[in-house]
Amino acid sequence: MNQRTLESSSGSRRFPDQPPVRDWASLERRDCVEVWSAGSFRYIAYVDDLAADGQLIWVIENGTGSRRLFVRDDPVTLYLI
Fold first, then answer.
1. Calpha distance 40→42 (Å, rounded)
2. Domain of residue 60, CATH code
3. Greatest CA span in the chain, whole angstroms?
4. Minimal CB count within 10 Å: which of 36, 56, 65, 74?
5. pLDDT digits (tens, 9 = 90+) for 38-77
6. Residue 58 structural domain
7. In sequence order, which residues have a C-beta less than 8 Å from that of residue 15 and are 6 or more positions away?
């Protein structure tokens, strides 16, 4: 994973080297992603399921196993790792 070094115990990170995923439909089940919101790293997750048009995506947070649903208009940014 690029730029994986933790900067503090709070889990903050530097932005990844690669561009964010613009087309969620390009992701596949089991892809590993970094989830960012409001310019801050939130967690690493795995794609669990997604709509064919890329408007909805389910991810499972690494470590906690929490399953979360995002709608394309939600204020999150995904980076493929």
1. 6
2. 2.30.30
3. 37
4. 65
5. 989 999 999 999 999 999 999 999 999 999 999 999 999 9
6. 24-80
7. 3, 36
SS3 25: helix
- Cβ(35)–Cβ(45) below 8 Å: yes
Residue 16: inside a domain: no
What is the DSSP secondary structure assignment for residue 72, as one 8-state letter? T
Q: Backbone phi, then psi, for 78, in 5-degree steps? A: -110, 135
Question: Is the pTM above the cut of 0.85?
Answer: no
Cα–Cα–Cα angle for 39, 1, 62, rounded to 5 degrees: 75
Determine, yes or no, domain membership for 5.
Answer: no
> How many domains does the chain fold into?
1
73 DSSP assignment: T
